[in-house]
């Protein structure tokens, strides 16, 4: 019986294990578990979103050296042809103001799934080569899985990256912050949550919780440029180098610790992400 081994015997009024909890006792247990899960989520978000400021003399020197190499190669890249063997090796992504070329990544895996590991498949290619993987290819495996760049939180400056569409279907490409919550099971991706902003060229819409008419229709092989101006609070997109205009204004990039590149894909869709380790297909925005 439930009271077996209890010195109080049948008259005991205390719960003997979780299954006997009722009323306020059960509520307190459930609240404690919820608080623990929330604290763990916040710890994970802080780990991936926060970043260290470059402060030591050695790192400052490395930044100057990396910027010098970028400037020597011509930060404003031209299309096609030129040797890009050294571009972006030291620092990424590209800051289009030319004042800073981003944070340092020593590892090759800079793009990761948001949510379930089976929602998207991320392939870093090619591996190695000093600067790590130069592209990331993403394949949708769930109803609407999401992926994000890790190790970066943009709070100031102007940052740009490109997404080449390997298929021309339903994708939402753009930015998110540390409070973004995606749910592939119900089809919520980047732009469906208020802490994310995206361009959807299949339906010619912009998304951030709600949708609005925006942009041109895309197709397989097109290249989407994504520009965040954290100082001005604007997010703009480009299609094959042609500006589509500001999709969002009044964006507070620092509200949740910074914004980062992110995208969502329907099952069967795929894209290639370039954050500056390889030459961009189109010139950086002025």
TrEMBL record:
CDD domains: SPRY. GO terms for molecular function: ubiquitin-protein transferase activity; zinc ion binding. The keyword Zinc applies. This is B30.2/SPRY domain-containing protein. GO terms for biological process: proteolysis involved in protein catabolic process. It holds the Pfam family SPRY. GO terms for cellular component: cytoplasm. InterPro entries: B30.2/SPRY, B30.2/SPRY_sf, ConA-like_dom_sf, RNF123/RKP/RSPRY1, SPRY_dom. Residues 83-280 form the B30.2/SPRY domain. SUPFAM superfamilies: Concanavalin A-like lectins/glucanases. Keywords: Metal-binding, Zinc, Zinc-finger.
């Amino acid at each position: 019986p439930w009271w077996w081994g209890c010195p109080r015997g049948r008259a005991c009024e205390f719960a003997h294990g979780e299954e006997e909890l009722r009323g306020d006792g059960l509520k307190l247990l459930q609240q404690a578990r919820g608080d623990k899960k929330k604290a763990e989520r916040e710890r994970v978000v802080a780990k991936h979103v926060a970043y260290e400021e470059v402060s030591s003399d050695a790192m400052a020197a490395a930044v100057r050296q990396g910027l010098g190499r970028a400037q020597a190669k011509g930060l404003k890249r031209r299309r096609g042809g030129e040797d890009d063997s050294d571009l972006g090796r030291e620092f990424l992504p590209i800051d289009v103001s030319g004042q800073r070329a981003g944070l340092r990544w020593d590892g090759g895996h800079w793009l990761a799934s948001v949510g379930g590991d089976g929602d998207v498949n991320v392939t870093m290619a090619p591996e190695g080569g000093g600067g790590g993987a130069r592209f990331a290819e993403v394949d949708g495996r769930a109803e609407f899985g999401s992926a994000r760049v890790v190790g970066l939180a943009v709070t100031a400056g102007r940052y740009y990256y490109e997404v080449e569409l390997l298929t021309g279907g339903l994708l939402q490409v753009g930015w998110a912050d540390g409070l973004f919550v995606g749910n592939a099971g119900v089809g919520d991706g980047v732009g469906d949550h208020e802490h994310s902003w995206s361009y959807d060229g299949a339906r010619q819409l912009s998304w951030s919780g709600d949708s609005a008419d925006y942009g041109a229709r895309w197709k397989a092989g097109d290249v989407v440029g994504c520009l965040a101006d954290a100082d001005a609070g604007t997010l703009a997109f480009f299609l094959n180098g042609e500006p589509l205009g500001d999709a969002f204004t009044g964006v507070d990039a620092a509200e949740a610790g910074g914004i980062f590149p992110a995208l969502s894909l329907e099952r069967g869709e795929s894209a290639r992400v370039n954050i500056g380790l390889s030459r961009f297909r189109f010139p950086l925005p002025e």
